[in-house]
Amino acid sequence: MSNHTHQSLHTMGQQQDRRSWAEPYRIKMVEPLHMTTREEREQALAEAGFNTFLLRSRDVYIDLLTDSGTNAMSDRQWAGIMLGDEAYAGSENFYRLEETVRECYGWKYLVPTHQGRGAENLLSQSLITPGSHVPGNMYFTTTRFHQEHAGATFHDVIIDEAHDSHSLHPFKGNVDIDKLAALIDEVGADRIPYVCVAATVNMAGGQPISMANLRAVRELTSRHGIPIYLDATRAMENALFIQEREEGYAGEPITDILREFCSYSDGATMSGKKDPLVNIGGWLSTNDRDLYEEARNLVVVYEGLHTYGGMAGRDMEAMAIGIREALDDDYMKSRVGQVRYLGMLLEQWGIPFVKPVGGHAIFLDARDFYPHLDQDQYPAQTLAAELYLESGIRSMERGIVSAGRDAVTGENHRPKLELTRLTIPRRVYTQAHMDVVAESVKACFDHRDSVRGLKMVYEPRYLRFFQARFEPLTA
């Protein structure tokens, strides 16, 4: 994508002379899609309890539920699959993955896991003790669960603009340094095992954190001896935003930006199912030898031996290749550019969504979409259901259902953002698919006033958004 084209996508629909762009790859293999009838979708959604997570994939036309593990792998990755060393101990693929992570991200030690939440569990079990406090730039569902399950209290220290879907702040993922400093003063540095920093911030709309902000967090925490651990699942996308928006980084390759960004942390949890372009796997990285020894011991309990940790050798090989492919600037611009293209279409129709456009998804603002629905009527869940009924497109809720309940009081968390996420898998769909998605969202928007909400009729104990069931309100 040319710089001229990229800028026009970034401005989302301003009338400019815009040249077309194309994805920097060609299609070698296809998977047929099937469009169901409205009657078939009504039956499927009722059977799924109006929860898109419970739909069968065969009943879905365009699947925007998540970008986690839904990537299309390259010919080189598929070739790497054939190089899988499936030895129980000491797989050669582990050492290739370890070397790749060390070169591309910079951390010394690697513990592989089956996916990102396995790494979150290892980090939480290793560093958190009951009564701990973990600050972070907005919660993520599984991350907060593991922190609270280990006995910690989560504290949101993101800047206020992150909770405002209309704010155009270029780095809405930034940590509020004053909030973080106040928390350290209040609870004491010895009760904060680490600061958790997401890049980008999923629940804020895929919003980035700036290099300057992470550097400032590092300066503050260093004075108190508090480590920083990244959720680095989309740190490469974050690096692109730094390249585009932060002074001093224009023209710098994403590889260099990523290395500098990671250098201000002590390690990271990683879901390899995002940036690294594979369908399964993850890891915990650290520069702390003691944490490494603890985690590589715990991984044997929870996952598998420390040289595979829940992954097959072939998956580790594909991930090592995918990490290097994802660091290509042209690829990353096209990846985020596809999301921006969808945002540009929605913007021209006045459809409300989180702005600026984030890195991996469009987050529809369900509060603005359905202003007549109370948050207890689950507007974001309702919108996901309506979009599926309209077109067979699967999206997901990111609002009060995902926020869950307070671990102590049992009361619902009530996030300011009530969002329905249209998540774009990597290298899977074309620009024509984005046209279909946009037109389907517009159709839902055009009949929004007639929509009623939902009521929850089944609530699981943990991470309810995955398995909760709903019924339509009748009055």
UniProtKB/TrEMBL annotation:
Reaction(s) catalysed by this chain, per the record, are: L-tyrosine + H2O = phenol + pyruvate + NH4(+)
Q: What class of enzyme is it?
A: lyase
Query: Matching PROSITE patterns, A to Z?
Result: BETA_ELIM_LYASE (PS00853)
- Give the record's keywords alphabetically: Lyase, Pyridoxal phosphate
Q: Which SUPFAM superfamilies match?
A: PLP-dependent transferases
Cofactors that this protein relies on: pyridoxal 5'-phosphate
> Domain Aromatic amino acid beta-eliminating lyase/threonine aldolase: where?
63-439
Q: Which InterPro entries match?
A: ArAA_b-elim_lyase/Thr_aldolase (IPR001597), Beta-eliminating_lyase (IPR011166), PyrdxlP-dep_Trfase (IPR015424), PyrdxlP-dep_Trfase_major (IPR015421), PyrdxlP-dep_Trfase_small (IPR015422), Tryptophanase_CS (IPR018176), Tyr_phenol_ly (IPR013441)
Q: Which residues carry this modification: N6-(pyridoxal phosphate)lysine?
A: 274
Q: Is Lyase among this UniProt entry's keywords? A: yes
EC code: 4.1.99.2
The UniProt similarity line reads: Belongs to the beta-eliminating lyase family.
Note the subunit structure: Homotetramer.
HAMAP family assigned to the protein according to its UniProt record, in alphabetical order: Tyr_phenol_lyase (MF_00543)
NCBIfam families (UniProt xref): PRK13238.1, tyr_phenol_ly
**Name of the protein described by the UniProt record:** Tyrosine phenol-lyase
Q: What is the lineage of its organism?
A: Bacteria, Bacillati, Actinomycetota, Actinomycetes, Propionibacteriales
